[in-house]
Amino acid sequence: MVLGYQNVLFIMMKKYSAMVFLVAMVVSVIFIVRRNYMQFNSIVSVSNSRWANVHIQICKAGNGDPATDKLIFDQSLSKGQSRTFTINNGDDIVYRRDLDPNHPDGKHFTNWTYANYDGSSVCSIDDP
Questions:
Q1: Helix residue spans in the chain (DSSP H)
Q2: Over the stretch 56-79, which tens digit does the pLDDT of each residue have?
Q3: Which among 48, 54, 80, 82 is least surrounded, fewest beta carbons within 10 Å?
Q4: CA dihedral sign of residues 84, 88, 94, 98
Q5: Same structural domain for residues 33 and 73?
């Protein structure tokens, strides 16, 4: 089969447009994965091995007053329980617990304390 010169140009353009489309798809997938999944770089781990039951609140201290910041964790943990979750940056994680952990009332808490971050990707709050 002999092709004319006009068909050769069309076949070459078709091949190059497929390669450009493939490169664009790969770049798009990398961008989407990076934007949606790579932003979570800090793992926060909360564990309770001291109290029978303790109510813990954790928030990201953004504007200097944790009382007005949005809580990212507000749960009670029984002895031996732990929770792990991810956030986008663990630099300013603060937490507090019930003043009397064995009799939680949800109103009286300890002062806000900065979590143990140490510049790594894991932030541990052990026995608050």
A1: 5-37
A2: 888 887 666 666 677 888 888 888
A3: 80
A4: negative
A5: no
